[in-house]
Amino acid sequence: MDATPTVDFLGAGVDALTHYITIPCISPDYDASWEQAGHLDTAVGFLAAWAAERSIPGLTASIERLAGRTPLLFVDIPASTPSATGTVVLYGHFDKQPPLGAWGEGLDPFVPVIRDGRLYGRGSVDDGYATFASLLAIEALAAAQMPYSRIVLLIEGGEESGSPDLDAHLDALGGRLGTIDLMICLDSGALTYDRLWLTQSLRGNAIVTVEVRVLDQGVHSGEAGGVVPSSFRILRQLLDRIEDPATGTILIPELHAEVPPSHHQRFAHLATELGDPVGDALPTVSGLDLHGDHGLDRMIRQAWMPAMAVTGMDGIPSVATAGNVLRASTTAKLSFRLPPSVDGEVAVDAIVARLTANPPHGASVTVQAPRPIGNGWVCPDPEPWLDTAIDAASEAHFGRPAGWTSEGGSIPFLAQLGQRFPDVTIIATGALGPGSHAHGPDESLHLDYTQRLSGALASLLAAFARRPQASS
After folding, report:
1. How far apart are CA 436 and CA 189, in angstroms?
2. Whole-angstrom Cα distance, residue 90 to residue 133?
3. How many CB atoms lie within 10 A of CB 417?
4. Fewer Cβ in 10 A, N or C end of the chain?
5. Bridge partners for 89 per DSSP
6. Is domain 204-251+305-368 given the CATH code 3.30.450.180 in the classification?
């Protein structure tokens, strides 16, 4: 493998990221007045100006705007040499989650703090570093006079709101993207900090709200108890149609999928090496009996099995204020995690059918299932040159081969990109590792890992330029 370039993330990257952290560029779902506030514009303006300052020949950076939609940063970098054919797209986002509660002592969501090798601040790991790491990796290649192909950066401003503007921007860009050969998405996670991690799959997510109503208004339980069926009991019956109450197993066939053999093999390898990385990472109460018999089983459950969580309820007063009333209704918000290859529309239709068929006691049952639904994503097995390049990049910067893992959560834009570019190889990686606390208080970026990740990215871009197809 060619010599690896030196990427200056710990210098120029951290300097830029500390400024970015100070910008409260909250995603539109959490800031209805985002256009008037102007923070997203401030953030994308800063990124565009910083990109334009890079020592990368031919780089152009433009802010793409569409009425009523979040802006997008489009950076176009020509190939360093005519022999380096093809186009790589690097994806990131600059919008942030809200502060979400009190942060630790001496920490603040919009005041950058470096402590024990981590940079604290909202957006540090999700996903502020992506723009700086990407451009510094390319700048390092240029400084080392190592060939690279055409590279495009797409940095969007609405990912934390489910990427509702991404498709519109891609439509508007039209032919400016050209033919894409490889996408690298820098918004995913790392199971450990000792190697380059790639994401092999993500579960989908669907939200369903079900209301059970038995009365027009609440009635004293002394009058109605034993006569009017409880809305809560009927809701329990309905949920038992969806989920086995003893085991948590989802009972609807449409929500299940087969685990690909290559994924199962990777899970087995990780279980042999790491034991139970899923169970060990969870802050469970002492003595809790987890689902799954061992680490391998839990990794499969987290990544490829459907699951339901009751995430909210209405119609139930607090214990402190509850009176002797048989309540008129109970409403539950249900979050379903769907296997990566399950069609979300099919799954939700099956869920709604189960909840609404023949309501117990003739109760009024109303179900709402907002669209669009977040489908999951499966990374196709990489071509041999890319598989080799991934391991080589990890060996060069971490001293060991790369790892592949799955995430039980969802990243909607990956499903969007996969559907829009079905013939393009898409890989997902990132710095969201243990202790990152993305979306929660005390979000932080592991600096040494991100430095190595930036170097590995440079190595992958160099490998793409010299792949076998480049000379054909």
Report:
1. 10
2. 10
3. 25
4. C
5. 152, 183
6. no
Domain locations along the chain: 9-202+376-471, 204-251+305-368
Q: Which of 461, 465, 470, 441 is nearest to 121 (CA)?
A: 441
pLDDT band at 471 (very low <50, low <70, confident <90, very high): very low
| C-alpha span between 40 and 35 (Å, rounded) | 8
Please report, as a single letter, which amino acid is at residue 198. L
Q: Quick count: other Cβ atoms within 10 Å of Cβ 117?
A: 12
What average pLDDT does the segment 79-89 reach?
97
How many angstroms separate the CA atoms of 208 and 213, rounded? 16
Q: How far apart are CA 134 and CA 9, in angstroms?
A: 10
In tens, the pLDDT along 288-345 reads: 999 999 999 999 999 999 999 999 999 999 999 999 999 999 999 999 999 999 999 9
Closest CA to 367 of 240, 204, 207, 162: 207
| pLDDT given at position 202 | 95
Q: How far is it, in rounded angstroms, from Cα 130 to Cα 32?
A: 25
Rounded average pLDDT over 453-464:
98
Cα 397 to Cα 194: distance, rounded to the nearest angstrom: 10
CB distance 201 to 263 below 8 Å:
yes
373 band by pLDDT with thresholds 50, 70 and 90: confident
CA-to-CA distance for 59 and 290, rounded, in angstroms?
A: 52
Q: Does domain 9-202+376-471 have CATH number 3.40.630.10?
A: yes
CA atoms within 13 A on the CB side of 111: 6
User: 441-450 burial, b for 16+ CB within 10 Å, e for fewer?
Assistant: ebbbbbbebb
pLDDT tens digits along 7-20: 999 999 999 999 99
